[in-house]
Specification:
- Keywords: Cell membrane, Membrane, Stress response, Sugar transport, Transmembrane, Transmembrane helix, Transport.
- Residues 192-419 form the ABC transmembrane type-1 domain.
- It is a single chain.
- This protein has 432 residues and is an all-alpha fold.
- It has two domains: 8-151, no CATH class; 180-431, MetI-like fold (Orthogonal Bundle), CATH 1.10.3720.
- The chain is flat and about 100 Å long.
- It has 17 helices and no strands.
């Protein structure tokens, strides 16, 4: 085909005003759309954008008249819109350069609007299909997260309630306070350590129970497997809210079924003498109860998942192991357990991340109590429930809560990525 003398450099320079590069490449329809978007963005910037960004930096100058929180939200929205336009701007320049090269090489270039639309449909259909979802994700998920990030760097607390008081940027002060101020340091250390213990023990318990019940029920010698499968699904079938509230009543120190009926019944056994346990007034026993309850609530899901894995393991593997003289424990440790972990590693990791932020059981059982470890946190509060109390108490500390939220996110994301990488979880699908 005949080549032209289109200049890639000239197309790039003209594209500094979006659309002109496409006009230079004789793609007038595409250039008109890009130029319209460019002019629309400029109009938005001069009518709203520059003011929003300036207010975002200053967070206002006059109390009551200026609402610092709204200014932050508008500024965040403007930052997102600007970043989206910058991405679009780079794509426009890249497109102009690519089309100029096609001209130089004598390749076909769609210059007719109908051909442009057909090419967009045929080559860009996946992008058109997913674009609304990405935009929705940006404004519904990313937007609130970014606002939370910015709040963590302000002094937003009960002494600075907008619009009556203005907010100020304080940098990393809130993060430093968690580790420097004695009150916050002690509370954060206590809550964080219990959060880790709770996550490890409760999740491991539900995983172990789920695997054991699935392995036992799926043995050929077990009669009435259908009955047991239904029985083990009951904790999962009942809404967790109802189960947690029921257990909260059962573990009541004075009139709960555990102290009033179960323990006296056990005491009838020979050489057994157990006193009533302070399930909801002693931090140790409250934590013990929480771990046991979560084991009960969480094991059915693991049970169902592991049951599916067990049914997919070829029977020939067990037969070969028997011929080689492997004991039942060896068959379990060398065949069953590796296959379970191989297939379920990503889900098991997510169980740990879920319990790290499992607010409902902590709050519904005893509202994070008993007692207090300072800064509004109870002795059984985990980080997520402490955040709730920081924002809903009589003296809310929104900025500190935002800082703790960011720390939680960093911890969960980092640990999850490390675990996924160490277990090679995402590559398992290619190997199966």
């Amino acid at each position: 085909m005949k080549t032209t003398q289109q200049s890639v450099t000239k197309a790039t320079l003209l594209s500094l005003i979006s659309g002109l590069g496409q006009f230079y490449n004789k793609q007038y329809f595409k250039g008109s759309i890009f130029l319209s978007v460019f002019l629309l963005f400029l109009f938005e910037m001069f009518t709203f954008g520059f003011t929003a960004l300036a207010n975002f930096i200053s967070l206002g100058t006059t109390p009551v008249v200026d609402n610092s929180l709204f200014m932050m939200i508008r500024g965040t929205l403007q930052i997102i819109v600007t970043l989206i336009f910058i991405f679009f701007y780079v794509l426009v320049i890249s497109d102009a350069r690519a089309i100029a090269r096609r001209h130089q090489q004598g390749l076909k270039v769609n210059t007719v609007p109908k051909d442009n639309l057909r090419s967009l449909y045929e080559e860009g259909f996946p992008y058109l299909l997913t674009l609304p979802a990405y935009l929705l994700m940006i404004f519904v998920i990313c937007f609130p997260v970014i606002v939370t990030v910015f709040i963590a760097f302000t002094n937003y607390d009960f002494q600075h309630i907008t619009p009556f008081r203005l907010l100020d940027w304080v940098g990393f002060k809130n993060f430093l306070n968690l580790f420097v101020l004695a009150s916050y340091r002690a509370t954060f250390a206590s809550v964080f350590s219990w959060t880790v213990i709770w996550t490890l023990l409760a999740t491991t318990l539900q995983i172990v129970l789920g695997i054991i019940t699935a392995v036992v029920v799926n043995q050929k010698f077990v009669k009435g497997q259908a009955f047991f499968r239904i029985l083990f699904l009951l904790p999962w079938a009942v809404p967790a809210f109802i189960t947690i509230m029921s257990f909260s009543n059962m573990f009541n120190d004075s009139i709960g079924a555990i102290n009033a009926q179960v323990i006296p019944f056990i005491n009838h056994l020979p050489f057994v003498n157990i006193d009533a346990i302070s399930w909801k007034t002693d931090p140790f026993w409250t934590k013990t109860a929480l771990i046991m309850i979560q084991g009960w609530l969480g094991f059915p899901y693991i049970y169902v998942m592991v049951t599916g894995v067990l049914q997919s393991i070829p029977e020939e593997m067990y037969e070969a192991a028997k011929i080689d003289g492997a004991s039942p424990f060896q068959r379990f440790s060398k065949i069953t357990l590796p296959m379970i972990l191989f297939a379920t590693a990503p889900v098991l990791i997510t169980q740990y991340t879920f319990n790290f932020n499992n607010f409902s059981i902590i709050y519904l059982f005893n509202e994070g109590g008993p007692g207090s470890v300072g800064s509004g946190a109870g002795s059984t509060d985990i980080l997520i429930s402490w955040i709730y109390k920081l924002t809903t108490g009589t003296a809310p500390q929104y900025s500190v809560a935002a800082a703790v939220t960011l720390l939680i996110s960093i911890i969960v994301i980092s640990v999850s990525l490390i675990a996924f990488k160490k277990t090679n979880a995402f590559n398992n699908e290619e190997m199966m």
